[in-house]
Amino acid sequence: MSLARVLRAVGGVSAVGLVAALAACSASPVSRFYTLGGNDAATRTAAPAAFYLEVSPVDMPPQVAKNQMVVQDGAAQVRVLEDERWASLPADEVRRALSADLSQRLGAIDVYGTPHPEGVPVYRVKVNVQRFESSPGRRALIDAVWSVRGVSNQAVLTCRTLAEQPVDAGYDALVAGHRRAVDQLASEISAGVRTVSSVRMPVTTSAAAGKAAKLPAPAPAVLPCPAAAMSATAAPAQ
């Protein structure tokens, strides 16, 4: 149908008004961007710690490793939402939120990729997210295997956290649920850091140190998961 016939059909609507209406109908939906930053843990502070953290990049399942939000549509289907997007890749969102949360809980600085003074204990945190599920109106779930290793004392523990948070309808509520799941993950990892930091380096004399230099390095002390991180046990994160 020609524009003239359309104008006659709508009974005197101006051409300018009709063109504006058609343009509004054909305009692409506006994308919305979400972040896991700014969770409630930022309000909690701890005394400055006498150690550093190294929070490594987070591993994320490939099916959700994209800016578009991926939501569960039943037990065996997912939808990729073009207009609901993460501000950065989910792995970066989780790592950034974890780093901020752990720093607040432990009073420690995350020095990953940053030069830092020698002689200060460093505890490396590695997180492997095995499931990152988003079900609007139902739940936000993060299932992660994580490890904490002491660079100086070589103590290590590996645990699993299954954080499942109920959520209301809407994507804001879904993202808030994932924030709470990250907060639970950070709580359990911080307990793990405290456990590893409690292992002391053996005190040796200079003579014993000379002999020890000729021996192979001792195997890392493998520690049990703390009571606050007993969601499950799992194989070490790589």
Description:
With 238 residues, the chain is α/β, with parallel strands linked by helices. The protein has one domain: ABC-type transport auxiliary lipoprotein component (Rossmann fold). Helix content is 29%, strand content 25%. The protein contains 5 helices and 8 strands. The chain has a 5-stranded mixed β-sheet, covered by helices on one side. It has a 3-stranded mixed β-sheet with strand order 1-4-3, with helices on one face. A hairpin with a 5-residue loop joins strand 3 and strand 4. Helix 3 crosses helix 4. The radius of gyration is 25 Å and the shape is elongated. The C terminus is likely disordered. This is ABC-type transport auxiliary lipoprotein component domain-containing protein. InterPro entries: ABC_trans_aux. Keywords: Signal. Pfam families: ABC_trans_aux.
In what order do the strands lie side by side in the largest sheet?
Answer: 5-2-6-7-8
What's the CATH H-level homologous superfamily?
Answer: ABC-type transport auxiliary lipoprotein component
Q: Ends: how far apart?
A: 63 Å
Q: Any idea what the shape is?
A: elongated
- Rg: 25 Å
Instruction: Note the quaternary state here.
Output: single chain
Poorly predicted runs of 5 or more residues: 232-238
- What's the rounded overall pLDDT mean? 82
User: Quick one: how many beta strands?
Assistant: 8
| Strand residues, percent | 25-35%
Largest sheet: 5 strands, mixed
Secondary structure tally, helices: 5
Order of helices and strands: HHEEEEHEEEEHH
CATH architectural designation: 3-Layer(aba) Sandwich
The first-level CATH class is given as Alpha Beta
